């Protein structure tokens, strides 16, 4: 009985935390939109629009770290409660979901045997913001990324809600509604590395202002502010490390490029061909040297300076 009570408490705490995080995220997205004035074409306008989507994306990558912090907090809380309730009784009440990280489109639920299961999300949050819509690899517009991941999950789990076998492989191509992508001209492409460098530095600076960088990257940001020769290189190194942070294998795979490609595609039609060029040897992985080269940075400046937080292996289901 007491066990059940504690379990209910844990679930309640997690749900409240999740809900408030959702609210925070939505609020953040709205405020950033109104703060920034849009300027002429290729300048801050498009880029800052993309930036806040990009921030949203990096937030979802941060979800893992956030989740870990939340687990620690809930565990503390639970220990307090059980200590207060009964000092000498050893209660080994742990929510099996606390240790589980489900992939996109899934949530952890406890089955009748008390085991953690990653099931398909039942209902995705209702989205009204058209920028939350996504275009898939089948050139179909979906309401949100959640809906796409949920559909893929349903197909993988052989649910009768799967719309067809091809949806096993549904992917998000970019954020926004599907549209005709203009070709990237030679002159647009030749200017793109410079704009990309600018953009990376601006994101890094914004994140520093909002105190969202680790101390290690904050130091690199300060250096980039004060030493012009380090400016683009530091921003490029930081982003490369950031993209690799999930696997930490010192390669940025095609999949790991998703957080910059998908949000930028709708605004910057050159991003896809640009990123293709970054993988110069076409092995589907971008090394730091390749990254520096396609951003037209001095290769001597591109020494690896990744922050090595996040070393713990996780249990994926
Ligand atoms: C994708 O869909 C959009 C909008 O329906 C259309 O304009 C575009 O031509 C399509 N692109 C491709 C590659 O079929
Ligand atoms: C700026 O960075 C360059 C390249 O790393 C370095 O050689 C130079 O000493 C730095 N300048 C200052 C003032 O720190």
UniProtKB/TrEMBL annotation:
Residues 1-19 form the signal peptide. Its main location: secreted. GO terms for molecular function: calcium ion binding; collagen binding; extracellular matrix binding. Keywords: Calcium, Coiled coil, Disulfide bond, Glycoprotein, Secreted, Signal. Residues 97-118 form the Follistatin/Osteonectin EGF domain. Residues 181-294 form the SPARC/Testican calcium-binding domain. PROSITE patterns: EF_HAND_1, OSTEONECTIN_2. GO terms for cellular component: extracellular space. Residues 67-94 form a coiled coil. It holds the Pfam family SPARC_Ca_bdg. The keyword Calcium applies. It is found in: Secreted. PANTHER family: BM-40, SPARC OSTEONECTIN. This is SPARC. The lineage of its organism: Eukaryota, Metazoa, Ecdysozoa, Arthropoda, Hexapoda. The gene is LOC114246718.
């Amino acid at each position: 009985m007491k066990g059940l009570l504690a379990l209910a408490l844990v679930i309640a705490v997690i749900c409240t935390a999740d809900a408030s995080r959702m609210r925070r995220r939505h609020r953040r997205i709205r405020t950033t939109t109104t703060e920034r004035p849009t300027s002429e074409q290729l300048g801050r306008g498009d880029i800052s629009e993309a930036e806040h989507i990009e921030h949203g994306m990096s937030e979802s990558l941060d979800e893992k770290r956030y989740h870990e912090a939340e687990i620690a907090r809930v565990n503390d809380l639970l220990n307090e409660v059980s200590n207060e309730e009964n000092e000498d009784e050893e209660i080994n009440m742990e929510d099996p979901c606390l240790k589980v990280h489900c992939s996109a489109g899934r949530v952890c639920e406890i089955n009748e045997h008390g085991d953690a299961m990653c099931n398909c999300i039942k209902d995705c949050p209702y989205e009204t913001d058209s920028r939350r819509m996504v275009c898939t690899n089948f050139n179909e517009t979906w309401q949100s990324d959640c809906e796409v991941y949920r559909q893929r999950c349903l197909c993988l789990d052989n649910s009768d809600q799967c719309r067809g076998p091809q949806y096993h492989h549904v992917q998000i191509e970019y954020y926004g509604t599907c549209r005709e992508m203009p070709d990237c001209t030679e002159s647009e492409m030749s200017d793109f590395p410079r704009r990309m460098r600018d953009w990376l530095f601006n994101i890094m600076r914004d994140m520093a202002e909002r105190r969202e960088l680790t101390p290690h990257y904050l130091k690199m940001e300060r250096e980039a502010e004060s030493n012009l020769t380090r400016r683009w290189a530091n921003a490029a190194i930081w982003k490369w490390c950031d993209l690799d942070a999930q696997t930490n294998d010192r390669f940025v795979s095609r999949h790991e490029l998703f957080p910059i490609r998908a949000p930028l595609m709708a605004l910057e039609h050159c991003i896809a061909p640009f990123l293709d060029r970054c993988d110069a040897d076409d092995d589907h992985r971008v090394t730091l040297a390749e990254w520096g080269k396609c951003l037209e940075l001095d290769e001597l400046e591109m020494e690896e300076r990744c922050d090595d937080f996040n070393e713990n292996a996780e249990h994926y289901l």
